[in-house]
Amino acid sequence: MTKVKNVNGSSRFSPPSGYTSWLEYWEEQTGEKKSICGASGCSNGDLVGAHVQKANSTDKSYYITPLCRSCNQRTDDFDVVWKLVPVPSNL
């Protein structure tokens, strides 16, 4: 598990060229397809490719991970169980 926090205002970032969504980008990068939220303890569906940062870390990079719409609105630090995929640096 990795402790993360949501990135505020990340909806302004469009997915990389050739992808229709950030969730599709995550699936292509990992070769995995998830149907439930990656937040520890949450089993909701209706997933989005959420922009997160590692919490309590000097790493300020943005990552994508599958979260439900509700967990994508969280303002606390929380654990995720799915992989983190780095957001391309050219955005």
Write the layout of secondary structure elements.
Elements: E1 2-6, H1 22-30, E2 47-54, E3 63-68, E4 78-80, E5 85-86
Antiparallel strand pairs: 1-2, 1-4, 2-3, 3-5
Question: How many helical stretches?
Answer: 1
Helix-strand sequence? EHEEEE
Mean pLDDT: 95
Q: How would you name the oligomeric state of the polypeptide chains in this document?
A: single chain
Q: How are the strands of the biggest sheet laid out side by side?
A: 4-1-2-3-5
Helix content: under 10%
Shape: globular
Structural summary, described in words:
There is one protein chain. This protein is mostly beta strands and 91 residues long. The protein contains one helix and five strands; from the N terminus they run βαββββ. It has one helix at 22-30, and strands at 2-6, 47-54, 63-68, 78-80, 85-86. The protein has a five-stranded antiparallel beta sheet with strand order 4-1-2-3-5.
Summarize the structure.
The protein is 10% helix and 26% strand.
Keywords:
five-stranded antiparallel beta sheet, mainly beta, single chain, 91 residues
